[in-house]
Amino acid sequence: MRYAETGYNLEIDLATGNIERVETDPKVMETHLGGLGTSVKLHWDRVGPEVKPFDDENMLIFSSGVLNATPAFSANRTVVTFVSPESDLLAYPMMGGFWSAELKYAGYDKVILRNKSPKWVYVWINNDKVELRDASHLVGKGALETQDLIRRELNQPNAQVAAIGIAGENRCFTASIEQGRSSASRLGGGAVLGDKKVKAVAVRGTKDINLARGEEFMKHMMDMMKYINFRNENPIPDVMTILSGIGSPQEMVHTDEQWHTENFMWGNARTRRRGFWSKEISEEWPKVQKEGIKRLISCMNCPQHCGALISYKDTPRYMAKCFGKLTYAMAAYVDNMEFAWKTLQRATEYGLDSFSTPQIIAFGIELYEAGILTDKDFEGAPNDKEGRFIWLLDRVARREGIGDVLADGVYRAARKIGNGAEQFDHNTIKKHEQLPLKLGTLDPLYYLMYSTNEKISITQIEGNWPQSAFATMEQRENFVKDWPQLPDESWKQWLLEWDQRGEKAIPFYPTPEICSEIVDWMEMLHNIDDACCVCAGMSSFCLKPPYHIHNYPKIISSATGLDLDEGSLKKIVNRSRNLHRAFNNRRGMARVDEKPPADHWKRRWPELEENLLSTYYKFKGWDQNGIPTKERLHELDLDYVAEDLEKRGILKDGQD
Amino acid sequence: MAKIKKKVKTIKVDADKCNGCRGCELVCSAYHSSPKYSTINPARSRIQIIRHPLKDIWLPVFAGEYAPAECMGRDVYTIDGKEYDECTFCRAACPSRDIFKEPDSGLPLKCDMCESDPPLEKPKCVEWCLNDVLTYEEREEEVEEGVEMEEVEVGLKSMINKYGMQNILDTVNRISQKQ
Predict the structure, then answer these.
(1) In A, which residues are within 8 Å of B21 by CB distance?
(2) Residue A654 predicted with pLDDT over 70
(3) Fewer CB atoms inside 10 Å of the end CB: C or N, chain B?
(4) A218 Cβ under 8 Å from any chain B Cβ
(5) Are residues B139 and B156 part of one domain?
(6) Residue A33 DSSP SS3
(7) Is A573 left (phi over 0), alpha (psi -120 to 50) or beta?
(8) ipTM
(9) Is A253 buried (19+), middle (13-18) or exposed (0-12) by CB count in 10 A?
(10) What is the pLDDT of residue B151?
């Protein structure tokens, strides 16, 4: 019997319509656990570096993780993997919601989509019955609209549907895959799905998932329940509200947006608006936010309220979460929250990533204002800020006119437009738009996180370590006294010594050696979450979370029957993480690509930055070009990877 | 007939507080699996969240008595501008719909308030819901003494309703001869 996982994948060849239910090797769980880990393994085995994002051979995998569908709190993520049209690397956006649990109840751990369908289809998985159904009538429909249409058509109100909107159909590089209140957004999964002519994947399941040691597993969950209650009742003091709780940022609950609106940049990551949160705004915005929120909602088996049902005036209803609440208004320099609610609805139906897309549009408008794009490019656009922004959003989603160029993302559009447009591409890493943040002094921890993680997004590596030093010793002592999540007690000293000014402050403290330990630890936690498909909001993305390195091995062991301790669990996720890096190295990614935008910090220390990167590479067991060494790969039982990298000349013997 | 004290167990549902997480469904199915907590399957849960997210409907409903036949008519409620589907508020497992039936055998499910020995402080779904949607209450009422059906009898009765008396008799006969 298989525990926690179903032991079966669905393999779908879209070109021929062949569908197979394939039993997986139980050993793969022992070596790669599940979720992102086992998906990376499939991509490594099957997708060579010559495969381009829109080639037939670019597989797209919807995957559950080992803890989905069990009573593990907040284990509700679905991880979607594919070679990204934007970064040309292996992307893994994730969505919350209910989809992955439903897939496991239907009897599958993953849905593997290969090749391209000759006509528009959607996949309908109903336990053992799986079919490709005609989707020609759904083309042009909104991402959310499509989900309900499919449920109605199938007469399956409990089916979970992940769908693309017209942005995905048109292969916009920032097209998302939407599902209820959630979306797998970053790096263009919607575009790859659209390229395969798959409008949606719907699933309904009514089968059992087995737990290896159920009673023991539930005891761990009861302990966690107590801690979740404790954390909900006791927010962490001395940090920003948004960081004080657990869960994904509670953007629907919190209405005080002074921090985001005054510290994040407006426009194309361009202007910091200190003093924006005036008395008038601080009354108006929360009022409109509350007017729009009909109900606070969550994902599967999660007590938090990260999402909301939005019902604002005559705007059709939709669901929202996180920072998408602000990104469109801030990118458009529009000072009213009403615009935010309305635009987010439009963009959600289009199926567009609300992180990257607003910046792309702001970038286009910036180029227009600078005279690089002309009236001809903006022919027919309204003159007012709001109207022009929406006009351009429509063009991007439909790939019309200048929208067709911008739909490839800032990096590529800048190079295509030329004429100085490259100068305006100032907020991308590895060709991908970043959070609109521009700060003062180089932060060594963030430098490493921005530079090196395969997610290419800071939100998928930061989390457990405070974002900045506490001002007073009293605050520090207070913070460390109750911090069992740390891997080792001795680390508390680092936080106690970490100051806001002087020698023990950024950029020189934490030292490169300490930074390496901390960043590696945070990344490792994210990798465990991503293998289990536990929401990072309850684990790696927040301070003092319910899941951590000390309870994870027990939880996973009792669910799966594997006999894991901290060391063996770390080894598994390190294996998958290095395989992921090797996959990207094989596609050409190397040290030269690992750098935050030049203006991310005003005050930079090039020598220190080089030292940070070199120290971290060494710590990770990578050579000085950022490639895992033969020794490191051997330690992780990845000799076959070393051999492949050597054969391709990416890994050179004796070179570090 | 003599009067006896009867313990009335109530789960109060404050549907406005429901965030739609379906944790109650998970834990119910886990608790009622055999051995306890060995399998999870919300389709076997005796509490189901009726969900229509865009209509703002997240309604926990508990499985009640099995009904062998459909009602003569069906009901659709509109409350506070929200239209609930046919029979949404009905707790019965009945031939008109799939809810509250074992997915493999089709046998009806019924909430038993997680009765166990020793008794739980409260049903698992109530314990698991961290948003205070479900509140457990007990009170005593004086009722006339009646004959309580035993578990086997309840099961048999529903089997008879589903397959007919003769079928069940024949099957029992056949099985007992084999043994």
Answers:
(1) 298-303
(2) no
(3) C
(4) yes
(5) no
(6) coil
(7) alpha
(8) 0.95
(9) middle
(10) 76
pLDDT at residue B146, rounded to an integer: 73
The answer, yes or no, to whether residue A47 has pLDDT greater than 60, is: yes
State the Cα–Cα distance between residues A277 and A622, nearest whole angstrom.
45
| Shared-domain flag, residues B75 and B163 | no
For A66-216, where are the E strands, in sequence order?
78-83, 90-91, 94-95, 110-114, 121-126, 129-134, 160-163, 177-179, 182-184, 198-204, 209-210
Q: Is B90 helix (H, G, I), strand (E, B) or coil?
A: coil
- Structurally, what CATH architecture does the domain formed by A439-647 represent? Orthogonal Bundle (1.10)
Name the band, by pLDDT with cuts 50, 70 and 90, for residue A403.
very high
Closest residue in B to A68 (Cα) is B40
Q: Cα torsion for A328, A332, A338, A344, to the nearest 10°?
A: -20
The residue-averaged pLDDT of A105-130 equals 98
pLDDT at A604: 97
The tally of domains found in chain B comes to: 2
- In a shared domain, residues B31 and B73: yes
- Which part of chain A has CATH 3.60.9.10? 8-204
| Topology of domain A235-355, CATH | 1.10.569
Task: Tell whether B109 and B177 lie within a shared domain.
Answer: no
B56 touches chain A (CB under 8 A): yes
Confidence band (pLDDT; 50, 70, 90) for A213? very high
What is the distance of C-alpha A25 from the center of its chain?
28
Residue A318 pairs in a beta bridge with: A310
Q: Report the SS3 class of residue B40.
A: strand
B66 Cβ under 8 Å from any chain A Cβ: no
Domain shared by B57 and B85, yes or no: yes
A129 touches B at CB < 8 Å: no
B82 touches chain A (CB under 8 A): no
Which of B37, B42, B56 has the CB atom closest to A211's CB atom? B37
Q: Report the gap between the CA of B2 and the closest CA in chain A (Å).
A: 42
In this structure, the dihedral spanned by the alpha carbons of residues A538, A542, A544 and A546, taken in order and rounded to 10 degrees, is 0
- What fold, for A361-434? 1.10.569
Q: Which residues contact B73 (CB under 8 A, 6 or more apart)?
A: none
Query: Which two three-digit tokens encode residue A568?
Result: 């063996």
- State which residue of chain A sits closest to B132, comparing Cα positions: A303
Residue B19 contacts A where some CB pair is shorter than 8 Å: yes
Residues whose CB is less than 8 angstroms from the CB of residue A574 and which lie 6 or more positions away in sequence, other chains included: A524, A527, A636
Interface touch A214/B42, C-beta < 8 Å: no
Name the DSSP class of B120. Answer: P
Q: Specify the CATH architecture of the domain A8-204.
A: 4-Layer Sandwich (3.60)
pLDDT tens track for B95-130: 998 899 999 999 999 999 999 888 899 999 999 999
Q: Is B171 on the interface with A (CB under 8 A)?
A: no
Using DSSP's 3-state secondary structure scheme, residue A121 falls into strand
Cα–Cα distance measured from residue A533 to residue A36, given in angstroms and rounded to the nearest whole number: 8
Whether A105 and B41 lie within 8 Å, measured CB to CB: yes
User: What residue spans in chain A does CATH classification 1.10.599 cover?
Assistant: 439-647
For residues B29 and B61, membership in a common domain is answered with: yes
* Strand A121-126 with A198-204, pairing: parallel
Tell me the two tokens of residue A628. 């895992």
With contacts defined as CB-CB under 8 Å, which chain A residues touch B30? 71, 211, 214, 218
Distance to chain A for B145, nearest Cα, Å: 38
Domain interval for residue B170: 149-179
Cα dihedral B167, B172, B175, B176 in deg (nearest 10): -150
Extract the runs of DSSP E, i.e. beta strands, from A14-127.
Answer: 18-23, 60-63, 78-83, 90-91, 94-95, 110-114, 121-126
Burial of A418-456, coded b for 16+ CB within 10 Å and e otherwise, reads eeebeebbbbbbbbbbbbbbbbeebbbbbbbbbbbbbbb
Same domain, B101 and B13: yes
Tokens of A161: 């549907």
Whether residue B120 sits in one domain with residue B39: yes
